[in-house]
Amino acid sequence: MLHPRSMNALARCLAAPGLRPGDPIAVCAPASWVPGGVAEAVAARLEEAGYRVRLAPSCARHEGFFAMPDEERADELNRLFADDSVRAILCARGGYGSARLLPFLDFDLVRRHPKLFIGFSDITALHAALTQRAGLAVVHGPMAATLVEEKSVPETRDAFLAGLASPWRTGDLSAPFAGTLRPLCGGTAEGPLLGGNLSVLASLAGTPWALRGDGAVLFLEEVGEKSYRIDRMMWQLEAEGLFSRIAGVVFGQFTACGADDGDGTTEEVLAAWAERIARPAVAGLEAGHGRKNLFLPLGLPVRLDADGGRLDGLGA
Fold first, then answer.
1. Which neighbouring-strand residues pair with 32?
2. What are the catalytic residues?
3. Do residues 258 and 227 make contact, with C-beta atoms less than 8 angstroms apart?
4. Could you tell me how many helices (H) and strands (E) the chain has, helices first?
5. Cα–Cα distance for residue pair 275/277, rounded to 1 Å
6. I need a surface site. Which of 64, 143, 202, 233 has the fewest CB within 10 A?
7. For residue range 74-128, what is the model confidence (pLDDT) as tens digits?
8. What is d(CA 37, CA 44) in angstroms, rounded to the nearest whole number?
9. Integer Rg of the chain from CA
């Protein structure tokens, strides 16, 4: 039986078509500045794969924490969406600063010019806004910096290239890594897959940009946080009301998230929250800050079978 919250899912987001050989991909830095050589290296790889690549000015700028001032980064993103010669936008890296762009983005413009928008980590702030304000399906997946990292495995790069051509696939979303999703709380749920980085979502709580998540299957991942901080951020999302609105929960990678002596482990904290949320829940999706990182659609409907440990995309 489907969880009753599943019936309150958001309207289906607009899904831009996949890419064909020769299509142009823009690489930009909506958050932190990009170390030298990173954008050029990923451009070379994408060109080898048959795409044309445009490096936005933000890839070569460095001002404080960020690539460029907030309004300049937002203006660049608006212009990339408006440019119909660009078929996809790949974020160069996360870091910090995506949320600072939200007041300056033109969501009506984005809605009129849908295209693939790919990133993760700090880019979660943009994903939440684009799905909710522009009704655009987006991709939680590797960025330029992660695609050229030594720790990134070939399977991640292969899945990325396959995803560019066919981003909204149906069936088992844990493929091609054949990961085993661990049941935490039984049941079945359907709804749009939404979410991303836990700390970013917690930072949006209580703001106009908070994730509503009505009827959603909520995906969460994190990196480098102690278990008590994870618990604190989960409590913040609960207090904001997010968990009362969702249909199910999928925990991804919680990379380098340890516990102080005597504290509960990250796995114990997540299991306790799954029980407390009392929605169908699984853990172990290989998406996030690990060596393997899925090309994961956000904003489109999925079916979560927590008892069977399976998450299926239902397509665009």
1. 66
2. 121, 221, 289
3. yes
4. 10, 14
5. 6
6. 64
7. 999 999 999 999 999 999 999 999 999 999 999 999 999 999 999 999 999 999 9
8. 11
9. 18
